[in-house]
Specification:
Blueprint: H1 2-145, H2 147-151, H3 160-174, H4 183-200
Length: 206
């Protein structure tokens, strides 16, 4: 009797333990599922954070690439400007050299002109001295020879027109207002001119 009760009690306890085990198992599975859900949510958030970081990094890389392109473009433009400026300076240097050469040539021409002018001045002074010497010689000759010395001024005159031109040239040379002017000599020349006009019979026509 007692054994039978024991056996029946054992049969009643077995299903109860199995039920508890099933419940414990289900509870454990729920807990594991909850953990997996929580881990999955954290993983998604972590993945989303990584995606945002990757997008930010991608944007930064693109910005850096654009800045690098702008930098290279500015470098190319600067190099182009420097090349143009260097060519402009080279052209300016060539032009300056040409101008310097032209200036030197002009200076050489001017120097030559000044040298020629100095020679002409010396020649003029020499001719002036010779002319004064000749005039003095003629004055001395006139003192002893009267009109014969002045007549030499009209030597070679063969007609009235030539005579008139010779007289005009002599007046220009010996007029008192000129550097080589001589009033007395000019008076003698005028008298000689009048005399020669009478000789050729052209005084009335003149």
């Amino acid at each position: 009797m007692r054994e039978r009760e024991t056996m029946e009690s054992g049969h009643l306890e077995a299903p109860g333990r199995q039920l508890e085990e099933v419940q414990e198992k289900e509870e454990k599975e729920k807990q594991e599922e909850g953990l997996r859900t929580l881990e999955g949510k954290e993983s998604q958030e972590a993945w989303a954070a990584l995606e945002r970081e990757r997008e930010l990094l991608t944007k930064q890389q693109e910005r850096l690439r654009q800045e690098r392109e702008r930098f290279y473009e500015e470098m190319r433009e600067m190099q182009t400007r420097m090349d143009n400026e260097r060519r402009r300076m080279e052209e300016a240097g060539k032009t300056l050299k040409k101008d310097e050469l032209f200036f030197q040539q002009k200076m050489e021409i001017l120097k030559g002109g000044f040298a020629q002018l100095a020679q002409d001045r010396k020649a003029l002074e020499r001719d002036k001295i010779l002319l004064e010497a000749k005039l003095e010689e003629r004055r001395s000759s006139q003192c002893g020879a009267g009109y014969d010395g002045v007549r030499l001024f009209f030597s070679g005159v063969s007609n009235p027109l030539t005579l008139k031109k010779r007289h005009r040239d002599l007046v220009k040379i010996f007029h008192p207002d000129n550097l080589c002017g001589d009033t007395k000599l000019l008076q003698q020349i005028n008298r000689m001119y009048e005399t020669m006009l009478e000789e050729v019979g052209w005084k009335k026509k003149a």
